[in-house]
Amino acid sequence: MEIINYSEEHRIFRNSLRKYLEKEVIPHVEEWEEAGIVPRSAWKGMGEQGFLCMGVPEEYGGLGADFLYSVIVIEEMVRTNHSGLAASLQNDIVVPYIVAFASEEQKRKYLPGCISGDIITAIAMTEPNAGSDLAAMRTTAVACGDDHFVINGQKTFISNGINCDLLILAARDPAEKNPHTAVDLFLVEAGTKGFEKGKKIKKVGWHSQDTAELFFTDCRIPKANRMGDKGTGFLKLMLKLQQERLVCAIAAVASAELILEITIQYCKERTAFGRPISKFQHTQFELVEMATEVKLGRTFLDKLIVDHMEGRNIVVEVSMAKYWTTDMACRVADRGVQLFGGYGYCEEYPIARAWRDTRVMRIFAGTNEIMKSIAARFMGL
């Protein structure tokens, strides 16, 4: 019995998205991987088809759809075996901050473009010397007169860093001694004087994802661009990190499922000593163990998706899921490469990119070590 009850509308949406991706996205993946970035036209196409920001309320041009539509987009994007067209980053991580915390004027200004794909978004938390320690960030926002903030600092590992038109920036008031009440979130538009994008970061994986350093030098933004009351940024981040880490777990399980699928197919087709390698006991044991871990991850994940949609506080469980599912996906990917043999290390086989791209999941959105620390703290350890 399935934990999640998908409706006929959900199934129609998934089929429509899968067909679109097969026609308009997958044929271009190799080109995007080589270029190190996805063209803006790809984002526009996703928006035109209704695959961006489905959860935005109808009054701002969205569908007001439930979170299962986001789950479907994450899972189907994983099946394209590339990371550049990061729809889930826009749909489920960045735009929810705007929906929840931006002013009415800002919502009406930005949300329609996020939905259509005309506005590409990013969120900037991580810094070169802070990493997962958000309270240690150094980027500052200093009030200047009655109408502006002046921002100075640097962010790194920012997904959509090159393409982004609109950035949610975490920065601190240097006069505030308490690190948790010093942080605020700000909306910064690309092209703002003093805001510069660095070069694309060359990464081991996620080649089509434009990841960049961002620099702020006496960058002036209107005071209205602070999201909410002073000193509430850290709390806002904590409120939204549950969904961000759940998104990571969804992607991890979907990745493991894809890797298992392509590995089983290969093992059935590849022959050695006169028979398919899937007929060897060792191979069967490996595949069964991989499948068991994938099914365990799926069962745990689906329960959390339901809990999240019901509005439950599952910070501890999501932290556990983020670390376990991403570790599991890496284990499955590594075993998949081994079963492919030498071909698993060749770029022409999909397992190579899947293996390479999976590794970073254990690092972003809070390292897996941080996830264990969060769970330990809530367990009273």
Describe what you observe in this structure:
- With 381 residues, the protein is an alpha+beta fold.
- The chain folds into three domains: 8-119, Butyryl-Coa Dehydrogenase, subunit A, domain 1, CATH 1.10.540.10; 123-230, Beta Barrel (Butyryl-CoA Dehydrogenase, subunit A, domain 2), CATH 2.40.110.10; 235-378, Butyryl-CoA Dehydrogenase, subunit A, domain 3.
- The protein is 49% helix and 15% strand.
- The chain contains eleven helices and nine strands.
- It has helices spanning 8-25, 29-35, 40-48, 67-78, 87-101, 104-116, 233-269, 281-309, 315-340, 350-358, 368-378, and strands at 121-124, 140-144, 148-159, 166-172, 183-189, 195-200, 211-222, 271-272, 275-276.
- The strands form three sheets. It has a four-stranded antiparallel β-sheet with strand order 2-3-7-6, with no helix packed on it. Strands 1-4-5 form a three-stranded mixed β-sheet, with helices on one face. Strands 8-9 form a two-stranded antiparallel sheet.
- Helix 4 crosses helix 7 (233-269), helix 7 packs parallel to helix 9 (315-340) and helix 8 runs antiparallel to helix 9 (315-340).
- The two termini are 36 Å apart.
